[in-house]
Amino acid sequence: MKPSVILYKKLPDDLLARLESHFVVTQLNDLSPQTVQQNAQVFADAQGILGSSETVDKAFLEHTPKLRVASTVSVGYDNFDVDALTSRGIALMHTPTVLTETVADTMMTLVLATARRAVEVAERVKAGEWQGSIGPDWFGIDVHHKTLGILGMGRIGLALAQRAHFGFNMPILYNARRHHQEAEDRFNARYCDLDTLLAESDFVCISLPLTDETYHLIGAEQLAKMKSSAILINAGRGPVVDEKALIQALMDGTIHAAGLDVFEQEPLPVDSPLLSLPNVVALPHIGSATHETRYNMAACAVDNLIAALSGNVKENCVNPQVLK
Ligand SMILES: NC(=O)C1=CN([C@@H]2O[C@H](COP(=O)(O)OP(=O)(O)OC[C@H]3O[C@@H](n4cnc5c(N)ncnc54)[C@H](O)[C@@H]3O)[C@@H](O)[C@H]2O)C=CC1
Ligand SMILES: O=C(O)C(=O)CO
């Protein structure tokens, strides 16, 4: 008999058909306690789950005694209790690599949009304010040849460094737990401690995962170490930055601007002070959101689930120790 799996994200038809050729698939909207309660038998029978963004913790796992694989349509997995999964022998599969270039494009978009005030001035044009030659109140700052600091020199950080180095002639600084030879050799990136990176960068770019270590890594103290002309870019996870401290720093001119794809609470509440600051470009977590990349992520997640439930995993497992 085919194993039962729960799908909690919409898939393109061809990928759904592929999933259904291997499994008995139940489609649900989410993994909320209410959904679990209403579909108790489905969760009790499920050997696999596939979707994104929902919390999978100890309390959830109590309802899934047969679960063997969780396949997330994302590279980030901070919404999973990995220790709880591992202690139950459940494999966690994710989708690195297929989204790397697209997310780096998004980060470069934020760098350019904040520096050149693209959103703000486009809105002024739409509001009919472009009535003659523009003056300094419409000007931005240069991106090329400025120093770009990277926090999180992993796959996405490297792809960002490539764009900044070759495309914009930007010196690259990075802080990491170890030296990255590839970044140093290919992009002339210079390793430095966090304080030096904050003090010397014109753009501080975050492509870090959210972990206990990175939670609120950037707070008031760190923002105060940045240049007052510097711009903060965050496309890692919202809680890596203390959002209250960031709002204060943007309001009092401690830093120049921020380009944000991720927030402490998503969707960003409509009354967030971030939305009334002209020096903020706020995107709705679109880092990987292109048609091509979202398709590739979904295909990767389907393949990951098939591989893991058939004992055939070659890549993309967060906790490979459960496979031994
Ligand atoms: N905005 C968006 O739509 C997206 C956001 N992301 C976020 O980007 C993150 C990174 O993705 P990848 O580059 O593929 O992952 P990765 O694992 O290749 O890179 C993360 C890097 O951060 C480093 N790191 C972790 N903790 C650190 C610490 N405390 N101090 C310094 N460095 C530390 C790791 O050593 C690694 O080099 C994801 O975990 C996710 O949170 C990923 C995709 C899309
Ligand atoms: O993959 C991730 O981690 C995202 O945030 C969305 O692509």
UniProtKB/TrEMBL annotation:
InterPro entries: D-isomer_2-hydroxyacid_DH (IPR050223), D-isomer_2_OHA_DH_cat_dom (IPR006139), D-isomer_DH_CS (IPR029753), D-isomer_DH_NAD-bd (IPR006140), Glyo/OHPyrv_Rdtase_B (IPR023756), NAD(P)-bd_dom_sf (IPR036291). Residues 108-287 form the D-isomer specific 2-hydroxyacid dehydrogenase NAD-binding domain. Residues 5-319 form the D-isomer specific 2-hydroxyacid dehydrogenase catalytic domain. Its EC number is 1.1.1.79, 1.1.1.81. The keyword Kinase does not apply. GO terms for cellular component: cytosol; plasma membrane. It catalyses: (R)-glycerate + NADP(+) = 3-hydroxypyruvate + NADPH + H(+); (R)-glycerate + NAD(+) = 3-hydroxypyruvate + NADH + H(+); glycolate + NADP(+) = glyoxylate + NADPH + H(+). Gene3D superfamilies: NAD(P)-binding Rossmann-like Domain (3.40.50.720). Homodimer. This is Glyoxylate/hydroxypyruvate reductase B. It comes from Buttiauxella brennerae ATCC 51605.
